[in-house]
Each structure stands twice: as structure tokens, then as C-alpha cells.
């Protein structure tokens, strides 16, 4: 297929920005409308957090102990919040891959729409979905006995870090979705799940073999989990490595680095489709 001509961008940067944001909002509303009209997707968003809390909090958590005698569900929930944000990359990747295979992306590219606006609209839609999913998961945690024990400002800061992680991983999902077939995208959970487990999500890295513990400490997910536990006032672990002592720095730095790498890669991959 020959490359489609890109629409001419406005000459002034302010006009280009307004054009991009306007088109991004249209694309986001379109994606959200399709999601609302898909009962299976809505049901999955509703049931997934409930199933995860019951499975890990009650079934597996009944055999878990926390150092210092803390409640395991208090320890678990920040990890569950972070893992859910990380696993959202699967949704992004699958949807983008399907849209590319079905020609939806080509139709966008053949119309006078800002090309950055298309991928940005996808990111906006996924962030809205993630906010809803996180709210449901927070409610499930409160029902299960979890709570935050510091001020509302710290709790909102933790939620902001969780969404920052999700926003960064959206660009990973967009890039992989543009690069992979739907079949390959649907199988990507196999390497993704161990990456979310090999962190401080469910157990302290100190309980892992030395080399696995080191990997877990430097996992970007671990930084977000550790910082959220601190901000929520939930029990956690205190390692003596640089990563453990600077969890807040890494919780901000890792998502920014991932975004700086994969956002331009996603935009360039989109521009080169069909070339």
C-alpha cells in the first residue's frame, strides 16, 4: 500500500497545537463511545478489579505474612493498583493492533486529521478508562479493609503517580500495537505478566534470591508501588539499596524516561504506516 499524503499543518505552532488537541479530543470521544457500546469491555472493567482483590487478597493472601505484623491486604493493595495500571498496556496494544489490521488507522490517515492528534486521542481515551478502573479498584480495596492513613493530599499524590505510570505505558502499548499483528499482541501478556510479578507487588524483594531481588528492586513498577505505600501510609519494606532509598525519584523518573522514549517512537511508527 502506498503512503497516504499527510494534511498540511498550520504554519504557526500555536495553531498546530490547537489543531492537534482538537483532533485528539475528537479521537478520544470516538474511542470512548466505542468502548461504552461494548458491553464485554464495560463488564471486564467492572469485574476485573473485584476478581483480583478476592483472588490475591483473600485466597492467596490468607497464607501471607507482612514483616512487622502488618495486614497483608494493606500491603497488597498499592501493588494491585500499580499492577492494574501496568497491565493496561495490554488493552492499549490490543485495540491499536486491531484498529490497524481493520483499516481504521488508514482511514484516519486519509483524512485531514492531525497525525499526532490520533495517537494522543488514543492516549486520552485510555487514561479516562484507567481512571475509572482505578476508582473501582480503590472502592474494592476499601470494602476489603484497605485504607490510606495519611492526608488526602498524599493519597491524591499516590493516585497521580499511578496514572503517570499508566500514561507512560500507554505509549509502549501504542508503539507495540502499531508494530504487532493482533495475534501477536494478544499473546504479549505472556512476557508482560512475569514483569509485573517480578517486583515488590506481592512480596518483598528481600525474600527473593539475590539476583532476582536486585531485578525486582529496579523494576519501574517497584518504585511506584513503594512510593504509593509510603504516601498511603500502608506497610511496606525498607531496603538499603539506592533504588529502595530513592523510590520517589524513580517513581517519577521511570515514567518520564519511558514517555520520552516511546512517545516519539509511537508518532514515528504511525507516520510510517503504509510507507
From TrEMBL:
<keyword id="KW-1133">Transmembrane helix</keyword>
<feature type="transmembrane region" description="Helical">
    <location>
        <begin position="192"/>
        <end position="212"/>
    </location>
</feature>
<dbReference type="InterPro" id="IPR051784">
    <property type="entry name" value="Nod_factor_ABC_transporter"/>
</dbReference>
<feature type="transmembrane region" description="Helical">
    <location>
        <begin position="247"/>
        <end position="265"/>
    </location>
</feature>
<feature type="transmembrane region" description="Helical">
    <location>
        <begin position="80"/>
        <end position="98"/>
    </location>
</feature>
<dbReference type="InterPro" id="IPR047817">
    <property type="entry name" value="ABC2_TM_bact-type"/>
</dbReference>
<dbReference type="Pfam" id="PF01061">
    <property type="entry name" value="ABC2_membrane"/>
</dbReference>
<feature type="transmembrane region" description="Helical">
    <location>
        <begin position="41"/>
        <end position="60"/>
    </location>
</feature>
<keyword id="KW-1003">Cell membrane</keyword>
<dbReference type="InterPro" id="IPR013525">
    <property type="entry name" value="ABC2_TM"/>
</dbReference>
<feature type="transmembrane region" description="Helical">
    <location>
        <begin position="119"/>
        <end position="144"/>
    </location>
</feature>
<keyword id="KW-0813">Transport</keyword>
<dbReference type="GO" id="GO:0043190">
    <property type="term" value="C:ATP-binding cassette (ABC) transporter complex"/>
</dbReference>
<dbReference type="GO" id="GO:0140359">
    <property type="term" value="F:ABC-type transporter activity"/>
</dbReference>
<comment type="similarity">
    <text>Belongs to the ABC-2 integral membrane protein family.</text>
</comment>
<keyword id="KW-0812">Transmembrane</keyword>
<feature type="domain" description="ABC transmembrane type-2">
    <location>
        <begin position="40"/>
        <end position="273"/>
    </location>
</feature>
<keyword id="KW-0472">Membrane</keyword>
<dbReference type="GO" id="GO:0046677">
    <property type="term" value="P:response to antibiotic"/>
</dbReference>
<protein>
    <recommendedName>
        <fullName>Transport permease protein</fullName>
    </recommendedName>
</protein>
<keyword id="KW-0046">Antibiotic resistance</keyword>
<dbReference type="InterPro" id="IPR000412">
    <property type="entry name" value="ABC_2_transport"/>
</dbReference>
<feature type="transmembrane region" description="Helical">
    <location>
        <begin position="156"/>
        <end position="180"/>
    </location>
</feature>
